[in-house]
Amino acid sequence: MEGTPKQPSNLSLLLQSLLQEARQLPEQGKVADYIPALAAVAPEQTAIAVATLDGELHTAGDASQCFSIQSVSKIYGLVLAMNRLGDDVWQRVHMEPSGQPFNSIVQLEWEHGIPRNPFINAGAIVVADMLVSHYSASKAALLNFIRKLAGTEQIWADNIVYQSEKEHGNRNAALAYLMKSFGNIEAEVPQVLDHYFYQCSVEMSCEQLARSLVFLANRGQDPWTEQMICSRRDAHRVNAILSTSGMYDQSGEFAFTVGLPAKSGVGGGIAAIVPNYGVIAAWSPRLNSFGNSCRAMFMVTRLAEQLGLSVY
Amino acid sequence: MEGTPKQPSNLSLLLQSLLQEARQLPEQGKVADYIPALAAVAPEQTAIAVATLDGELHTAGDASQCFSIQSVSKIYGLVLAMNRLGDDVWQRVHMEPSGQPFNSIVQLEWEHGIPRNPFINAGAIVVADMLVSHYSASKAALLNFIRKLAGTEQIWADNIVYQSEKEHGNRNAALAYLMKSFGNIEAEVPQVLDHYFYQCSVEMSCEQLARSLVFLANRGQDPWTEQMICSRRDAHRVNAILSTSGMYDQSGEFAFTVGLPAKSGVGGGIAAIVPNYGVIAAWSPRLNSFGNSCRAMFMVTRLAEQLGLSVY
Amino acid sequence: MEGTPKQPSNLSLLLQSLLQEARQLPEQGKVADYIPALAAVAPEQTAIAVATLDGELHTAGDASQCFSIQSVSKIYGLVLAMNRLGDDVWQRVHMEPSGQPFNSIVQLEWEHGIPRNPFINAGAIVVADMLVSHYSASKAALLNFIRKLAGTEQIWADNIVYQSEKEHGNRNAALAYLMKSFGNIEAEVPQVLDHYFYQCSVEMSCEQLARSLVFLANRGQDPWTEQMICSRRDAHRVNAILSTSGMYDQSGEFAFTVGLPAKSGVGGGIAAIVPNYGVIAAWSPRLNSFGNSCRAMFMVTRLAEQLGLSVY
Amino acid sequence: MEGTPKQPSNLSLLLQSLLQEARQLPEQGKVADYIPALAAVAPEQTAIAVATLDGELHTAGDASQCFSIQSVSKIYGLVLAMNRLGDDVWQRVHMEPSGQPFNSIVQLEWEHGIPRNPFINAGAIVVADMLVSHYSASKAALLNFIRKLAGTEQIWADNIVYQSEKEHGNRNAALAYLMKSFGNIEAEVPQVLDHYFYQCSVEMSCEQLARSLVFLANRGQDPWTEQMICSRRDAHRVNAILSTSGMYDQSGEFAFTVGLPAKSGVGGGIAAIVPNYGVIAAWSPRLNSFGNSCRAMFMVTRLAEQLGLSVY
From CA B180, how far away is CA B111, in angstroms rounded? Predict the structure, then answer.
């Protein structure tokens, strides 16, 4: 980050103005439609929220509207697994960029069932296996962890999305069985997938998302509760992996245009970590060809530029 | 970066002490031996240098000893091409991490001759083609550019390494011809490879390396001459690509343990950019299994930890 | 085939002598051990049987001993599916050689879920899906078909092998789910795999195997019952695909050394079709590195040489 | 083959009639256009010739018109290399089907520079290297071998095609350099490619093609001269490899529809071996999507059906 980010006298005004611009962009992209429940979302919704280390929360648009966080949930799963298993996590999933589509089965075959990183599907499924194997009720454990981070009990998984994911999850099942054939899945595959799909179907708002991840910008510590959520080392690690692998096959371009560790999901959400400053969460359902939200990308990119937030 | 790095009253002392530690590590790794000229280097040599934005240079060990910079040269080639061709560069090479070995021909085939980024061999060969096609004397242009950045005329390519590279460059020739079959090489392949091998055989010391790259830590400006070497945007871009793709198949791990944009070469050199602070250059010939210098990795990692330099 | 094969006054004596030779070969290869039930088979057992178009059956060794036919069962499944679905079969599985391991998931991905041929695992799983989707009781239908061909009711699936296959079938599950994700599996995956594993666990003797497949050497007609088992065209087709793809990754070498359409299984069985002459079935449990029985290969090769059976 | 092929009182009449049918087919396919010299061929030309073991030659259409034999030349190169190097050939090229495009570089990488068989480009380039390394004048040696087999001195390479191939041979150069990087090319790559492109540019007529390959249908012996061209074993071997790998990615389908060892070239020629009977050569320039001549395929298929020539 280039020195201390300028704290605009009115960050909220800036967010408001970016939101306006985003809403006036020519319509582009399309809503994820591989499951009906996602395809049904009103495509014009748009939101942005910034939570800072000093406990402030600035928002614009539909920032309290909940949406399906999908792959953004991989962050919570990973931190929970790191807390429980420690460095053993890295025996079963690497932390290198994948250079392949998020659901690639080819690379998994080449690397003998060890996923390249925890943010591609295969890696997140291995992490789900860790949680299933180490928690008696892994779904509840994950949900409680998210609620604690977001400071609210009002977070749930959407049951229709959850069931839909299961019915359309054949490729994820293929990834899981392939890893099991290599000995890298311990629990039964249906149970692992059940956790994985549950996790993907959690719904949160931009406000909740931003607040819940501030610990990653704060060396592992939640600034509201002052509780250590993970070690400083692990917060660094998550940010590092996000930087190379969080934005699907647009990660490299995002590193250049935004320069922040970030994770996107096909529900249209993006969470970007600004070390020592806070978290930006943005959302709008229409996706570009990489699976990243068009409007959320626009808002995050412009905000990072205007505040000089790039870490490079 | 976590706030302003601590400026140790005596950075030189710290470098000295890291160098001592590195020299006392149990011997590990081996010198690159794919060409005889590299294999003949005295393996115990070790050096570190730090050049800062305020024009200071701190060193320890063999910091004025020249060595073969090899893949570190890809940075200079890229900046020169960006300056000459502008954004057209990105029509012919992507900026995504590769997730494949640095010399992978498989990925190049899948992606129809467009390399994933300019720091894998295929990408650097495309950049070499750009220079060959746009400069009447591309080798001299590159050498002059490096000399200008390093502030000295005393930099040359090593002729024995250069000839050796040519004789052992069959895989690089395969990459080049494959790209030419896809229409992504304009000049004649032998001429492109000639430039590429020349570039790899340039010799520099850690002092020269550190000084020459400070502009990347300084938004494109050389602090000594105050000249703009490249645009602020392009400096960001290079740092971003280095962050995901500069350390071969150890880039992800390096992002975690060090958290800095960096490039390594099989000559044993590493250059790490610390945005808004300076450049660390380290060197020692023995390489780990990823092709990165064992001792240089150790010193850069420890220095980044002790000064809190990680960008994440 | 080079003219009419010599009919030795005593083919049985020749088989006897080949069997002796095979038993005296230095011990090589090892019994399939990926499931315990297969690993427990007495490894010294050896048998050969030849059934000819004129209804004769010549045997030597343990030719009435039943063994797990494994992949040889893919022939029966395919013929049954061709009879039921006609040329629609070839919309969902190709008939080209694979050039990849029998259980390759990489090729399946590249070819968008359409297996290269019905004798690699993925192809046989698609065929199993066809049977499951078109027969109310596909396992019984298959068993009855085999019994009819072999002219005996005394053929069963081995329940222990069947259960074992299920427990060790993760890679096959991965193949099946991947094909389902491409829309190339109609029934539920567990049901398809159930049929597939059942089929693999059928047990037959060399006598039964030889007799049951004579229709393929006789333009589709069973010489004992004079019933048309499949069309002449389909018999040709099966033989053609067996010629390029029946012997795993040793198919090309087998085409040269033996020159006959043939199928092997990891139970140690091999069935070779001699067009216009008959069928050779051979068995011995120890496998070479390609998964083909060492002794069965030896006997089939020598017999083909001595009788001049190669089709080339 | 199903018994002795019916010798039609007038095979020439049958060929005539097939030719008529072929000429009346709806126009389909397109002439190879990757090099201008091939694209310039008159697309309507069509020919068929059958040479039998008893020394007869039946023809129809433009059967004495010469055309670029292209990949059909791989047969001559292979036989010449087998004669010179014996079984050492098979240390450097396998005899398994490839299951990949004829010019695949991916498979070559996986298999560490050893091509799957001598009829894909990489395999033929290795064979060219053998010839270049073992003959002082490999191009003349090859041309003389072809002339001897065809019983005429009137065969030449086309110089324009030869030069054109060189200029458009970047992918073949990539294959060659990749193999050289694995140590599987002994001579200098440009010299090897020079031989390879020369070989591809040889021109022959259907009459010459048919006659020159009869030895493969006759256990290695030329029926006109009674000379052994290669061993019986090697004739079998060539036929076996042709059966699985001679018709590009349509080899499996061709095995079913025709059931003969055969080789095609992008000049529009096809040569099919009928063991113990003779050779069919057919030609017409328009190619289907696999690179095989539409009309030549049609005529060979119908002739094989009508004479019952399938080996299966």
Answer: 13
User: What does the DSSP 8-state code read for residue B221?
Assistant: B
For chain B, helix (H) and strand (E) counts, in that order, are 15, 8
Residue D170 among known ligand-binding residues? no
Give D143's pLDDT tier (boundaries 50, 70, 90).
very high
- Better-predicted residue by pLDDT, B300 or C38: B300
- Give residue D57's pLDDT: 96
Residue B137: pLDDT above 90?
Answer: yes
Whole-number pLDDT of residue B1: 43
Q: Which of C105, C170, C177 sits opposite A109 (nearest CB)?
A: C105
The Cα–Cα gap between C158 and B219 comes to 72
Question: And the tokens for C171?
Answer: 């890679």
Identify the CA nearest to D78 among candidates D278, D209, D238.
D238
Q: Cβ contacts of residue C180 below 8 Å, gap of 6+?
A: A170, A173, C189
Neighbours of A273 (CB within 10 A): 27
Hey, which residues does C33 pair with through a beta bridge?
none
Residue B11: name the closest of B303, B270, B262 by CA.
B303
What is the pLDDT confidence band of residue C7, given thresholds at 50, 70 and 90? low
Mutate to test the interface with A, among C181, C182, C185, C193 (most CBs of A within 10 A): C181
Question: How many inter-chain contacts (A to C, CB under 8 Å) are there?
Answer: 51
Q: Contacts of residue A240 in chain B, CB cutoff 8 Å?
A: 252, 255-256, 259, 312
State how far residue A297 is from chain C, nearest Cα, in angstroms.
29
Question: Closest-CA residue in chain A for B276?
Answer: A2
Q: Would an 8 Å CB–CB cutoff place A112 in contact with chain C?
A: no
* D108/D124 Cα distance (integer angstroms): 13
**Chain D, 150-209: which have a CB under 8 Å from a chain B CB?**
170-171, 173-178, 180-181, 189
Q: Which two tokens stand for residue B299?
A: 């010193």
Q: What is the pLDDT of residue C304?
A: 96
Bridge partner residues of D47 (DSSP): D61, D283
Nearest CA-CA distance, residue D301 and chain B, Å:
34
Confidence band, pLDDT 50/70/90 cuts, at residue B35: confident
- Please give, rounded to a whole number of angstroms, the shortest distance from the CA of B157 to a CA of chain A: 30
Catalogue all structural domains in chain A, each as residue range(s) with its CATH number: 11-70+204-307 (3.40.710.10), 73-200 (3.40.710.10)
Find which of A109, A166, A181 to mutate to test the C interface (most C CBs within 10 Å of its CB).
A181
Shortest Cα distance, chain C CAs vs residue D217, angstroms = 8
pLDDT in tens, A145-175: 999 999 999 999 999 999 999 888 999 999 9
**C231 at D interface, C-beta within 8 A:** no
The two tokens of residue C181 are 């994700």
Q: What ipTM, to 2 d.p.?
A: 0.92
Residue A144's SS3 state is helix
- Looking at residue D242, its amino acid is L
Mean pLDDT to the nearest integer, C129-140 = 97
What confidence tens digit (pLDDT) does each residue in D109-128 have?
Answer: 888 999 999 999 999 999 99
What region, left, alpha or beta, does residue A308 occupy, with left being phi > 0 and alpha being psi -120 to 50 degrees?
A: left
Phi and psi based region of residue A279 (left: phi greater than 0; alpha: psi -120 to 50; beta: remaining)? beta
How high is the pLDDT of residue A102? Answer: 66
Which one, of A230, A262, A234, A155, lies nearest residue A198 by Cα?
A155
- Asked if residues D114 and D129 have their Cβ atoms less than 8 Å apart, the reply is no
pLDDT beyond 80 at C16 = yes
DSSP 3-state assignment of C155? coil
The CB-side HSE value for C5 (13 A sphere, CA atoms) comes to: 24
pLDDT band of D3, cuts 50, 70, 90:
very low
| Tokens found for residue D98 | 């490839």
pLDDT average, residue stretch D181-206: 97
